[in-house]
Specification:
This is Rho guanine nucleotide exchange factor (GEF) 19. This protein is an all-alpha fold. It is 80% helix and 0% strand. Helix 1 runs parallel beside helix 5.
Length: 100
């Protein structure tokens, strides 16, 4: 996960710059983008909402694992596994936050 999320989040500023540049410099881009964003398969959401999804999802995943951890038996293998997953997710999120 770390090899995927960290570079993606680090490049968010570049993604935004590229998006803005395409809107300004490519006359066809806004129209095509508008048609795509209106498509029900995209739930009529803007492209920018999809660009932020990976970071939002890893944050939700951390909360999910935290809730799983609260419901595991103390000292069990499940608790150990959930603790490792939770700590790894915390580390990834912390690194993502510091790289933005």
């Amino acid at each position: 996960l770390q090899r995927v999320y960290l570079p993606y989040v680090t490049n968010q500023a570049y993604q935004e710059q590229t998006y803005q540049r395409l809107l300004q410099e490519n006359p066809r881009f806004p129209g095509i983008l508008s048609r795509l964003e209106e498509d029900p398969i995209c739930q009529r959401l803007p492209l920018t909402s999809f660009l932020i999804l990976p970071f939002q999802r890893i944050t939700r995943l951390k909360m999910l694992v935290e809730n799983i951890l609260k419901r595991t038996t103390p000292g069990s293998r499940d608790e150990d596994t959930a603790t490792k997953a939770f700590n790894e997710l915390k580390t990834i999120i912390k690194e993502c936050n510091s790289s933005v």
